[in-house]
Amino acid sequence: MRHRTVGELMTTDVVSVRRDEAFTDIAKLLAEHGITAVPVVDDGGRPVGVVSEADLLRKEAGRLDAAGLLPALHPQPDARDKSEATTAQGLMTSPAVTARPEWTVVEAARAMEQGGVKRLPVVDGAGQLIGVISRADLLRVFLRGDRAIREEITGDVLIRTLGIPPGDVTVHVVDSRVTLRGTVERGSTVPVAVRLCRAVDGVVSVAEELEYRVDDIGSPASDTEVPRRDQLAP
Please, is 197 exposed, middle or buried when counting C-beta atoms within 10 Å of its C-beta (0-12, 13-18, 19+)? Predict the structure, then answer.
């Protein structure tokens, strides 16, 4: 059982720019390649920042309204510097939040969430740009076929990880929604099986209709439970 990695999902045909790339040239690159952002690299090919459509629009928004119909903006100093910039050096958001090819989709998704970004430049051990991973790339794990998901859960999760004999539990997958049916040896296995199935790439939801032979979960005795007669001191 394993998560797909950034290296398996990333785009390797990367469009990048240098620090001195002009505003208009960056805008043309975004339009020509149908992308919404581009990494900025130094002379060694290492990402130092990212210029996005939002960065370019910030410059446009900072222009004066020729018709005088819109109120003037009064941005913070750092935003004003960006609105006045003419090259990638001034336009970019830095430092670049990067990913490594061996990261799982979970690690990449968390980095995007924490960094508030929609894509991550991917770097090798030397810090050089080797790809880009986007939100759309991460969502590709949900395009896995039902059969692939069922085979991974049956083989990796149930048989090899949990040691459940083949045939004791059947796995039904429809539109990436998983249902487990059958009987396991111990009740404590049920929540573990559900949790592991949810962690499989491409799974949208997990339902279970499982029975068990041994109830090993139990519940602690209540503080107000009355002791039996044979528990009383003589």
Answer: buried
Residue with tokens 């085979």: 151
CB atoms within 10 A of CB 48: 18
Distance (Å, rounded) from C-alpha 193 to C-alpha 105?
21
Domain boundaries along the sequence of the chain = 6-141, 144-214
Q: What are phi and psi of 39, to 5 degrees?
A: -70, 145
CATH class of 144-214: alpha beta
SS3 176: coil
Question: HSE-up of 193 (CA within 13 Å, CB side)?
Answer: 31
What is the topology classification, in CATH, of domain 6-141?
CBS-domain (3.10.580)
Smallest Cα–Cα separation from 183: which of 162, 196, 164, 168? 168
Summarised one tens digit per residue, pLDDT across range 107-142 is 999 999 999 999 999 999 999 999 999 999 999 888
